[in-house]
């Protein structure tokens, strides 16, 4: 009988302790479930952008942040600005990040873009071998191009209708010279991105026009020095453009608008302004969302 009584008491004790024990541990949601971003209706987004934003490493910082915050998955296509604008014009991209203001305005005037916002700027520089055979150091950009032409020293052109290529051709035009048409032996067109063009210029002891960010990101692998810089004519301005869904109904306009708003948001602008400072000791890009084109001297 004592053994039976002890058994009953043991069962009662187990029932009581089970009732008092916390039961939420087995049903609590995982930490990732608490912070999970709801997936957009169409999470796939195609960004056509310049090679400079890719080669500088900026997009390696910004795109993961955007994806984490919004749930979108971005396919980045890094090409020259001319090609990026053509992708938008053909409806093969949802959003563009480009740096050729006059061509961008033509794009917008044609109804191919829906929204356009100022994001940031950096500057172009002319780099070349340290011995500077054409003696361009300290000249203004147009006079530097004249000196390179007169000396017949090797010059590497992107030759890809990029924003940088457009700027280069504009300087030749201001100098009343046209090596692209004349095709002298010293004028080399790579048809490639900025990083590749810098490598070719370094290998051939040549001059080239580049954006400062891509140069600094690759400087350790180059035998090139900055020879012409900090002239107003060398300003390099970036805008974000959404492709017009009225032209191309299948584009992901909501995703494009989300990326536009992300790029001009104060937190993102802070990231842009701080990018590269710890590594290079200077800004690679200057955030501009709080400015207008007129503030930067653009028409």
Topology:
Elements: H1 2-20, H2 31-35, E1 44-49, H3 51-55, H4 58-70, E2 73-78, H5 81-89, E3 95-98, H6 101-109, E4 113-128, H7 141-151, E5 155-157, H8 163-174, H9 179-182, E6 187-189, H10 194-203, E7 207-211, H11 212-218, E8 225-228, E9 235-243, H12 253-264, H13 266-274, H14 277-280, E10 286-287
Parallel strand pairs: 1-2, 1-3, 5-6, 5-7
Antiparallel strand pairs: 3-9, 4-7, 4-8, 4-9, 4-10
Question: Would you summarize the structure shown here?
Answer:
By secondary structure, the chain is of the alpha/beta class. The protein has 14 helices and ten strands.
* CATH topology name of the largest domain: D-Maltodextrin-Binding Protein, domain 2
Q: Give the CATH H-level superfamily of the largest domain.
A: Periplasmic binding protein-like II
What structural class results from the helix and strand content? alpha/beta
Strand content: 15-25%
Q: How far is the first residue's CA from the last residue's CA? A: 102 Å
Number of domains: 2
**Radius of gyration over alpha carbons?**
28 Å
CATH class of the largest domain: Alpha Beta
Largest sheet: 10 strands, mixed
Approximately how much helix is present in the residues? 40-55%
Give the name of the CATH architecture of the largest domain.
3-Layer(aba) Sandwich
What best-fitting shape do the alpha-carbon axes yield? globular
Tally the helices: what do you get? Answer: 14
The arrangement of helices and strands along the chain is HHEHHEHEHEHEHHEHEHEEHHHE
Unreliable parts:
1-34
**Average pLDDT rating:** 89
Number of strands: 10
């Amino acid at each position: 009988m004592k053994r039976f009584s002890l058994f009953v008491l043991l069962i009662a004790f187990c029932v009581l302790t089970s009732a008092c024990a916390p039961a939420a541990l087995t049903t609590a949601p995982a930490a990732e479930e608490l912070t999970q971003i709801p997936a957009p209706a169409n999470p796939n987004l195609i960004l056509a952008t310049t090679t400079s934003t890719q080669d500088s490493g900026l997009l390696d910082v910004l795109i993961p942040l955007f994806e984490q915050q919004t749930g979108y998955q971005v396919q980045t296509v890094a090409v020259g600005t001319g090609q990026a604008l053509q992708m938008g014009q053909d409806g093969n991209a949802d959003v563009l990040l480009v740096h050729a203001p006059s061509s961008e305005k033509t794009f917008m005037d044609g109804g191919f873009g829906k929204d356009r916002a100022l994001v940031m700027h950096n500057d172009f520089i002319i780099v070349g071998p340290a011995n500077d055979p054409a003696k361009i150091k300290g000249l203004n950009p147009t006079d530097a191009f004249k000196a390179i032409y007169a000396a017949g020293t090797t010059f590497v052109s992107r030759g890809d209708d990029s924003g940088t290529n457009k700027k280069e051709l504009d300087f030749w035009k201001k100098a009343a010279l046209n090596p692209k048409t004349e095709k002298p032996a010293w004028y080399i067109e790579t048809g490639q991105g900025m990083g590749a063009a810098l490598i070719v210029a370094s290998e051939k002891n040549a001059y080239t026009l580049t954006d400062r960010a891509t140069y600094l990101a690759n400087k350790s692998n180059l035998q090139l020095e900055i020879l012409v810089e900090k002239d107003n004519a060398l300003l390099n301005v970036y805008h974000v453009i959404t492709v017009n869904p009225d032209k191309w109904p299948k584009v992901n306009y909501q995703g494009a608008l989300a990326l536009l708003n992300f790029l001009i948001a104060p937190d993102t602008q802070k990231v842009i302004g701080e990018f590269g400072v710890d590594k290079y000791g200077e800004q690679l890009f200057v955030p501009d969302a709080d400015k207008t084109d007129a503030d930067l001297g653009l028409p």
